[in-house]
Amino acid sequence: MEIKDFTHKTTVKVRFHEVDMLGVCNNAVYINYFETAKLEYIKAAGLIPEGGIFSDGNLHFIVRNEINYLGHSYFDDELEVYSKVSYIKNSSFGYDHIIVRKKTGKIIVDGKGVVVFVDPKTRKSTPLTDEFIEKIKKFEPKVQLLKEQ
Fold first, then answer.
1. What DSSP assignment string belongs to 86-121?
2. pLDDT in the model for residue 52
3. Over pLDDT 70: what percentage of the chain?
4. 98 in helix, strand or coil?
5. Which of residues 130 and 149 earns the better pLDDT score?
6. CA dist., res. 66 & res. 129, Å (int)
7. Which domain holds residue 130?
8. Do 111 and 119 contact (CB within 8 A), yes or no?
9. How many domains does the structure of the chain reveal?
10. Phi, psi (rounded to 5 degrees) for 97
């Protein structure tokens, strides 16, 4: 993954309660940064319903997270979290993330995630809506469409 391939960036700052006794950011915190970036991504892509998040009754569940630790961040570091939707399938889509320590410009974490669209009544996977797919394609022109026709 290369930074130039990403369309969205969110900046976060490592807070005091996210570090250990040595001031190093705890490894589990990076998943929270991915979640923050995903929320900012869906806002930027126009995917928040008019009534606000959760107002449309649609459910999207995270079913997989994968993370690679390549370096460290420390208390008060500014981090740039790059995100993109890399592919769309019938009922799921994949995110890619890179986290860069702003001070050094070095990638310290990369990761991937899979999100599944779930029917709120049956709690089973259901096809993504055409509206969702079109908004992602508009925001993320290089997204891979792996959806069966």
1. EEE-SSEEEEEEEEEETTTTEEEEEEEEEEEEE-TT
2. 75
3. 97
4. strand
5. 130
6. 26
7. 3-145
8. no
9. 1
10. -140, 150
Residues 46, 139 contacting (CB under 8 angstroms): yes
Distance CA 38, CA 40 (A): 5
Phi, psi of 8 (to 5 degrees): -135, 140
| DSSP H helices in the chain | 29-44, 130-139
If phi over 0 gives left and psi between -120 and 50 gives alpha, with beta otherwise, what is residue 132?
alpha
pLDDT value at residue 49: 79
Amino acid at 148: E
Contact 42, 54 (CB under 8 A): no
CB burial of residue 137 (10 Å; 0-12, 13-18, 19+): middle
CA 31 to each of CA 49, 51, 149: distance values in angstroms, whole numbers, following the listed order:
24, 27, 33
pLDDT number for residue 147: 67
Mean model confidence pLDDT for the chain: 93
The pTM (predicted TM-score) of the whole model is 0.91
Do 12 and 81 touch, CB atoms closer than 8 A?
yes
CATH code of residue 106: 3.10.129.10
Q: Which amino acid is at 19?
A: V
Q: How is residue 11 written in tokens?
A: 């900046």
